Write a sequence for this structure.
């Protein structure tokens, strides 16, 4: 399977990795920090690969699937498995009691021209570029 990175962002959240992980995987609260997500509901409570997350964005029902889980280290969510699906990879690392986070968004098995990939990268940056900033604001202000 090939993947092409279309967006990458990193930052530090002044909380422990354990607390950031807890907030990152609190699906019901995701609309408080995830750009464009109006409602998020998991199909079940178990956090494991294959978990389906139903959400509302721009008035449309959509789905993400948990693809990879390494508790307090890595979470990968996918929009699908077919060509041109997106994967959202959140990686966490502890540094001096703070969480360093990397968000990488990739296109899976791209069936797009170079120009189409560039357009997609621009669209993803506009739509998801503030994700880590918004997560940081939410996490550092959460009770």
């Amino acid at each position: 399977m090939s993947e092409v990175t279309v967006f990458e962002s990193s930052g530090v959240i002044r909380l422990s990795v354990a607390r950031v992980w807890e907030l990152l995987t609190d699906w019901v609260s995701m609309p408080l920090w995830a750009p464009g997500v109006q409602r998020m509901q998991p199909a079940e409570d178990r956090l494991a690969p294959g978990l389906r997350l139903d959400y509302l964005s721009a008035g449309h029902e959509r789905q993400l699937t948990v693809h990879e889980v390494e508790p307090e280290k890595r979470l990968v969510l996918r929009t699908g498995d077919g060509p041109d699906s997106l994967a959202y990879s959140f990686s966490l690392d502890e540094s001096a009691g703070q969480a360093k986070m990397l968000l990488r968004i990739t296109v899976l098995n791209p069936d797009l021209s170079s120009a189409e990939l560039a357009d997609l990268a621009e669209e993803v940056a506009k739509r998801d570029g503030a994700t880590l900033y918004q997560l940081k604001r939410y996490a550092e202000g959460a009770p």
About this structure: The two ends are 41 Å apart (CA to CA).
